[in-house]
């Protein structure tokens, strides 16, 4: 029995490097989505919370690393980041953030039609149509990046030892 985790058979193709035109198109989409989110009034912290929550659901270590740093740079607290997986069980998130997080989760787990219906109904009560559209686009885009990083097995590098 051969070990498929080593050698060429186990090494993943970094699809972003292998197909740079396709990856560049995804980056351009991400830039357009970032502008859409800003135009809709979504602040950087909320966008990063969405990025993080979707990345948690998908188990994307690379994107979790990138967006944790981005959230902290934007002013997010370590307390809220620490409880983000259990956001429903805290009072640390505003109704607007909660609606956005639920909608982002529903966008990520599209097979759960019931959760999707509830999340969308809550979003309609709290968010504007522009905000709803922006939240869905942010979730769609980070889902795509999660898949790029997961399928490529992008490494998360540790801090230098010193």
Describe this structure in words.
This protein is an all-alpha fold and 162 residues long. The protein has 9 helices and no strands. The chain has helices at 7-10, 15-18, 20-40, 44-58, 61-74, 78-83, 95-108, 113-126, 129-152. Helix 4 runs antiparallel to helix 5 and helix 7 packs across helix 9 (129-152). It is globular, with a radius of gyration of 17 Å. It starts with 6 loop residues before the first helix and ends in a 10-residue tail after the last helix.
Shape: globular
Radius of gyration: 17 Å
Secondary-structure element pattern, one letter each? HHHHHHHHH
Uncertain stretches: 1-5
| Mean of all residue-level pLDDT scores | 93
> Number of helical segments?
9
Q: Could you give a short account of the major beta sheet?
A: none
What structural class should be given to the helix and strand makeup? mainly alpha
Query: Termini separation (Å)?
Result: 40 Å
Helix content: over 70%
What amount of the residues lies in strands?
under 5%
How many beta-strand elements? 0
Give descriptors for this structure.
162 residues, mainly alpha
Give a topology summary:
Layout: H1 7-10, H2 15-18, H3 20-40, H4 44-58, H5 61-74, H6 78-83, H7 95-108, H8 113-126, H9 129-152
Structure at a glance:
The protein has 162 residues and is mainly α. The protein is 72% helix and 0% strand.
């Amino acid at each position: 029995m051969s070990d498929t985790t080593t050698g060429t058979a186990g090494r993943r193709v970094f699809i972003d490097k292998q197909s740079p035109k396709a990856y560049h198109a995804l980056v351009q989409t991400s830039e357009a989505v970032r502008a859409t989110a800003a135009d809709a009034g979504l602040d950087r912290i909320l966008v990063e919370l969405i990025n993080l929550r979707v990345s948690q659901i998908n188990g994307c270590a690379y994107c979790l690393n990138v967006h944790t740093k981005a959230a902290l740079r934007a002013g997010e607290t370590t307390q809220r980041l620490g409880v983000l997986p259990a956001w429903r069980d805290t009072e640390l998130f505003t109704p607007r953030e909660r609606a956005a997080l639920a909608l982002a989760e529903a966008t990520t787990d599209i097979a759960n039609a019931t959760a999707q219906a509830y999340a969308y109904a809550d979003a309609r009560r709290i968010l504007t149509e522009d905000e709803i559209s922006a939240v869905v686009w942010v979730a769609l885009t980070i889902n795509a990046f999660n898949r790029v990083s997961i399928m490529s097995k992008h490494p998360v590098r540790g801090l230098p030892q010193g």
